[in-house]
Model the fold of this input.
Amino acid sequence: MSQVDYDLFRRAIAATIEAAAAELPEDVSDALRTALEKETGEAARSALDFIVQNIEMSRESQSPICQDTGYPTFWIELPESWDRARVAAIVREEVAAATHRSALRPNAVDIITGKNSGDNTGILVPAVYFEDADGDKVKVKLILKGGGSENVSAQYKLPMGTLGAGRDLEGVRKVVLHGMFEAQGFGCGPGIIGVAIGGDRAQGYSLAKKQLMRPLSDRSPIPELGALEETLHRQGNELDVGAMGFGGATTVLGVKIAAAHRHPASYFVTIAYGCWALRRKVMVLSAEGFTVSDH
Amino acid sequence: MKTIRVDLPADRELIKSLRVGDEVRLFGRIVTGRDAAHKFLVEQRPDTVRDILQGTFIYHCGPVVKRVGDGWEVVAAGPTTSIREEPYEAQVLEEYGLAGAIGKGGMGEKTLAGLVKTGSVYLHAVGGVATLLARRMRRVVEVRMLEEFGTPEAFWVIEVEDFPSLVTMDSHGGSLHRQVLDASRKRFDELLKQK
Done:
């Protein structure tokens, strides 16, 4: 039990939040540089050029990549020897502290009064989900997902007659394509598309968002879903919505799909649209200290 | 792409001459205003912010700011999604004598009609490039409604220098967003039929 160290955990959480806000994951940065190289549309090219410049500037100055530092969402794998309530309190305190240091923008608004709490804490904010740990390491996955991208996320219910989308993977293909089309430039493309098939409504959104934690090179181990990921990635780009919705060759940087069992009556397809500024980090804490990585 | 310098407050003839595809670099004072601001401007028609809005651009942006001494420094300030202001924007442009709006994602037909009517323009800044755009902000001149609206929603009056943007909707009825929507809808319809 000697590895339970709440002070170290506190420092690790602070470092993870700051890194997530300022340092875009390498795989996403590389994909954006590739998109810039192959873009021929003038407006989209100019947008990608600013995006690539901004990634470097933010990393160097450790300032937020995007002013919308999002709705902080933590998935925490916690060994039994740790106290959940204490860990949740530390996360909350460090989110508030990061907000006071201007590493995060205050994004928690009271529904009744309309007041911003000023420090990113409030009812259900930040979002903290606990999961079982594998071994004695603490693992924290953090995503800072902005409101613009969250607003274009969507949930479909199959069948959907208007699109001719039935209750099968072909129906899934059609509605995800529809979601990418509808997003246009509103969610800050090129986007990364997390998809969940099945589950109930709540599980759908949660599972879809979690797909955004996967590296861009990752393929679903389920062959049918892996193939659908590739098809949708290709077809998403054939929509020609382009960076910022300016028209262009790169509309999406990747599509990541997971499936859950569904109720016989329900067939939900849920899309979590991730903007190009996909701010995700994974922190692992063990007896040796902690590391922060991109996925 | 043509690059055009626009000094603020803006020369209205210059604004009217802008066309979709022109790159614009702004110099002078702009004012941030987003969801709470637009609702406030239309529902309450306040006289308390007319002076700062007249002749300039309202920037759909909720910045990250830092207290420095008695003043403020902008840390990160990219655009937010403009379409949420669609119910309000045409009225806001007309009522407050704005030269236009700056945001991202574009706006709809109601705003486009408003641009034509008032001879104003919609400028698109690149979403998410918040550090880069903050560096084009020389200083925060003042802030209004900070207590009431909170940091992201307040009216921040900011002096910008060489602030980059693209005209995506103009006063002649042109809209890049409509063009891309129409073209991508055709592609979408074709892709639906493919496997």
